[in-house]
Structures are given as structure tokens and as C-alpha cells.
Amino acid sequence: MTLNTELLFTFSPLHRLQWEEAQQKTVILYPEGMVELNQSSAEILKLCDGTRTLLQIVEELETKFAASNLTNDVSAFLEVALKSGWITQR
Asked: Do residues 49 and 87 lie in contact, with contact meaning Cβ atoms separated by under 8 Å?
């Protein structure tokens, strides 16, 4: 599955992204279970709110964390998230 850089990313309505105090991590909850996320993954998914494209997500992360050249890493993670059904593109 290839990302379309022009489309907006939206977190799946079948999943819930939330901070889990017991794990001290952000997690994805869904009927069959839970996925623990590292900080980077959580920050990316928080931006998948239906208002941003890949490039806008990368730009916002690079600004927030004073980083550069994040496109490949963010794109690779979003591909996994898309295949896993955590996000959709529209």
C-alpha cells in the first residue's frame, strides 16, 4: 500500500488513541486488544485528525521537535499504521 501525499490522514473511528496511566504510554485501544506506542508513533498519530497531509504532518513534527529530514521515517510509520487499519486516507 502506497501513501498518497495529497490525501488527509484520519485516525480510525474503530480505534481509540489514549494515554494509559498504568503503562505510562499512549496506546491504541480496539475491541480485540491494545497496542502500546512509543513517543514518536504517538506524536505522529495525534496529528492524524483529518486536517493534515503527509507533508503537513512532517512539517509540524520537524517544527515541534527542532528536527529535519523526518519524511522517510514518518512515511514508513504511516504506511504501517495504514496497513494496520489505525488510520485512513481521504
From this structure: no
